[in-house]
Amino acid sequence: MTSRTLRIAMNGITGRMGYRQHLVRSILPIRDQGGVTLEDGTRLQVEPILVGRNADKVKELADLHGVEHWTTDADSVIDDPTVDVYFDAQVTSRRYAALTAAMKAGKHIFTEKPTAETLAEAIDLARLRESTGVTAGVVHDKLYLPGLVKLRRLVDEGFFGRILSLRGEFGYWVFEGDVQEAQRPSWNYRKEDGGGIVVDMFCHWNYVLEGILGTVRTVNAQAVTHIPTRWDEQGREYAATADDAAYGIFEIETPGGDPVVAQINSSWAVRVFRDELVEFQVDGTHGSAVAGLRNCVAQQRAHTPKPVWNPDLPVTEPFREQWLPVPANADLDNGFKLQWEEFLRDVAAGRTHRFDLLSAARGVQLAELGLQSSAEGRRLPVPEITL
Ligand SMILES: NC(=O)c1ccc[n+]([C@@H]2O[C@H](COP(=O)([O-])OP(=O)(O)OC[C@H]3O[C@@H](n4cnc5c(N)ncnc54)[C@H](O)[C@@H]3O)[C@@H](O)[C@H]2O)c1
């Protein structure tokens, strides 16, 4: 029944994202379910090849998960004509060179974000994809999450009427590493190693805003380093040179031409008083909704309470109880796996993937402009990128 097997070289699988989300939650389950079904009913199977710098670690993972092929020589898999896809979840600073080499060798690529450290490099990658004609996919995982899928459906159904605003709250406390170990890698907190919350999160916010509302036209951000000293994986104190919180305001233009104001707080120095680690509230003339990673609740105009401001009285309404859960009405799998499956079908069909290197370049652009806006203390327009 299997029509074809795609060989996928996976670099960065000893890391947090590469291991958990891409290997364990995506490629191995896809392999173990016998691949994906193509439009014509045939099966497309996957065969991972694990790639990393440390032979012991890579071999251990290969043995643990029954993966036959592994190597420490990334160049050799890129040069290997039997390899179809190169996947990259290395630290961001190594990505541009790796993706460039892979596409030049004719490999299809699937990659973590951000695709590059600078907009110029991100555009370069998008141009290289066009000239090589390979299929490229960039992780846009948030758009595949059940909460955001439900939110998008409310937009498609016209639930909101005219959309007015979006407010997003992302973050949690990342331990400094002195008493309790930090739950994120230390390079995330060093600017010189490609760290920083703006670089990390604004590329997500760009595709979330595009995917839910429309095109981002302006950005006004304030990036700060709240915690200037942290302790690394070896327990050594280091200067946290990168921003660990960013307060951003974005102007969006919907496909219908309406302006929407989006405000998103991102922070690794905030304690959670929310139902989920990220939440987006969308308010419109006819209704509002709040979506997290998994859940989404909504309130229609007809069900909207009429609070009256009176600080002398206790709160009169059980506000949180007045929202209705939005059902999934579908079996929504892990977001990374769903995007992988879509990407693999695109590779088999020889077509482009909808979340490609140009969309990724717009994400890198928003991060770059966010940092510039913060440094200059002003709102900046977001120009359209053409290749
Ligand atoms: N989609 C998401 O939600 C999401 C979330 C977190 C991180 N990411 C992205 O995934 C990528 C990896 O992030 P992570 O949190 O898994 O990082 P990590 O530090 O846990 O993993 C980094 C990987 O790169 C490898 N590596 C190669 N060269 C290296 C070098 N010189 N120094 C250190 N490591 C090197 C490591 O061995 C490891 O396999 C980043 O680009 C990050 O932006 C995406």
From TrEMBL:
Keywords: NAD. The keyword NAD applies. GO terms for molecular function: nucleotide binding. This is Oxidoreductase domain protein. It comes from the Bacteria. InterPro entries: Gfo/Idh/MocA-like_OxRdtase_N, GFO_IDH_MocA-like_dom, NAD(P)-bd_dom_sf. The keyword Translocase does not apply. Residues 150-289 form the GFO/IDH/MocA-like oxidoreductase domain. PANTHER family: NAD(P)-BINDING ROSSMANN-FOLD SUPERFAMILY PROTEIN-RELATED, OXIDOREDUCTASE. Residues 50-138 form the Gfo/Idh/MocA-like oxidoreductase N-terminal domain.
